[in-house]
Each structure stands twice: as C-alpha cells, then as structure tokens.
C-alpha cells in the first residue's frame, strides 16, 4: 500500500496508474481540453500531379484565430507549415499541399511518396489529435 497526497492508502498498482496519469496529464488532449481539436480532413485522400497544388481543409475547433500573428502550425508528414490562419471562428484551416516537399539543406524538393501521412495542428495551447491523409502521386497507389 502507498499513500498518495490527497488520497487514502491505495494498492501499489493503482498508485502507479495515478502517477502516470498525473505525469502525462499536461500532454494529453481530449475534445474537451483547451488545445486544438482536429476532427476531419476534406478531402482525406489526394492525388498529386507534378506542377499542381492541392488544397485540403482541416476541420475542428479551437484553432488560433489571430489574423495578425496566426499561431497555427500544421504538420503533414515531414512538411511543417507555420503561421497558418484559421477561419470560421477557429474551426477551419485551409492548406495547400505542394507536389514536392523540401528535402532540407541544398537538396532539391522531393516528390511525395505514395502513402498515408500524419496531420496535426499545434497552437500555443497544445497539439491536436493526429489524422491520416492518404497521398498518391501520378502513377502510384497508397
């Protein structure tokens, strides 16, 4: 038995669970928390063609609404888009997906490989849930 401050004596297994929850609570997100909530992507599957740019709308809640200094950072796989404005009262973000992603350094941009990519939104209040965006390129299949 272990005594946890603010609690009565509890079995060791419950004490471990309580400690893990307390340690992780600041980083956990739920739809009722103050951080951004990412509910859906529209479309959730795109086909990229060289030279074209495709737009995807992120739908959710609690995105940063500042117009002068947008605090939304959108991550799609390794692509990071900073200072992305929201609309509709912080419930929508529209991003353009380029046909290639920066490779870093002096290497030229690389075309997207077909597959599923994690999408999330980070604001000053935290990071949203992660959804998946399926990307296919010309002649490829996810």
Structure description:
It is a single chain. The chain is mainly beta. It folds into two domains: 1-30, no CATH class; 37-137, Immunoglobulin-like, CATH 2.60.40.10. The chain contains one helix and 13 strands, in the order E-E-H-E-E-E-E-E-E-E-E-E-E-E. The protein has one helix at residues 12-24, and strands at residues 2-3, 9-10, 37-42, 45-48, 54-61, 72-76, 79-84, 92-97, 100-101, 110-111, 115-123, 126-127, 131-137. The strands form four sheets. Strands 4, 6, 7, 11, 12 and 13 form a six-stranded mixed sheet that branches. The longest helix is centred in the first third of the chain and has 13 residues, at 12-24. It is globular. The termini are far apart. Residues 12-31 have low confidence and may be disordered.
Helical fraction: under 10%
Q: How many distinct helices?
A: 1
Report on the biggest sheet. Answer: 6 strands, mixed
Query: What is the CA-based Rg, rounded?
Result: 20 Å
N-to-C SSE series?
A: EEHEEEEEEEEEEE
Question: What is the name of the CATH superfamily of the largest domain?
Answer: Immunoglobulins
What is the total tally of β strands? 13
Strand portion, in percent? 35-45%
- CATH architecture assignment of the largest domain: Sandwich
Poorly predicted sequence stretches spanning 5 or more consecutive residues: 12-31
SSE class: mainly beta
Mean pLDDT: 81
Number of domains: 2
User: How many angstroms does the end-to-end distance come to?
Assistant: 52 Å
